[in-house]
Design brief:
The chain is built from six helices and five strands, in the order H-H-E-E-H-H-E-H-E-E-H. The protein is of the alpha/beta class and 198 residues long. Helix 2 (46-66) runs parallel beside helix 6 (180-197) and helix 4 (100-112) packs parallel to helix 5 (130-139). The chain binds zinc ion (ZN).
Length: 198
């Protein structure tokens, strides 16, 4: 599989490393390859582009928060458009599979009229769990961008790396730490509220 970013996204980027000169380097490469725009003045940088979509996933996560769900949100982007979105609804639906990613992937497949989401990117505020990572592989998602890592159950590098497992028939590029601070803050405030209630 050819990477759109020439293999760069196969490297995990701890958020702290997204500082200059790293950022300059990423911007330059991204611009060279026309990822995220290339106008020298007022151009959209590589990370600006991905932060824009992660902001949409964060909006979904905030919707989950309003519904007293664990605040996780996701969007699927294809050809610069959101084709599916979702937030965690496990409590409301009493459904263990109603994770943000599953809902967003189903919506995206519905939009395109196909379960093959080749060329699409998933933006999700929390690192996908094994179930959602499995769905990413099945859907042939090209790129996975996540905000907060999940050291306990993350399946895109933390505990497992299902989306890049050579034994499976598809691998996705992974970039972690996009708007990590905001994604983590939302989760922290939710769990703090839960602890206060109990
Ligand atoms: Zn999940």
């Amino acid at each position: 599989m050819t990477s759109r970013y020439f293999g760069i996204t196969r490297v995990r980027f701890p958020y702290a490393l997204l500082m200059r000169p790293w950022l300059n380097w990423i911007e330059r490469v991204a611009t060279d390859h026309k990822v995220g725009g290339s106008s020298p003045s007022g151009r959209t940088t590589f990370m600006d582009e991905h932060e824009k979509w992660m902001t949409k996933a964060l909006q979904e996560a905030k919707e989950a928060l309003r519904e007293d769900e664990v605040p996780v949100g996701a969007v699927v982007v294809h050809q610069e458009k959101i084709i599916g979105r979702g937030h965690n609804m496990t409590e409301r639906l009493q459904d263990p599979t109603a994770h943000a990613e599953m809902i967003a992937l189903s919506a995206a497949a519905n939009t395109l009229g196909t379960w093959r989401l080749e060329g699409a990117s998933l933006y999700v505020t929390l690192e996908p769990c094994p179930m959602c990572a499995g769905a990413v592989v099945l859907a042939r998602i090209e790129n996975v961008f996540f905000g907060a890592p999940d050291p306990k159950a993350g399946a895109c590098s933390s505990q497992y790396n299902i989306v890049q497992d050579g034994r499976l028939n598809h691998r996705s590029n992974v970039i972690s730490g996009v708007l990590r601070g905001e994604c983590e803050e939302l989760l922290k405030s939710f769990f703090q509220k839960v602890r206060e209630k109990t």
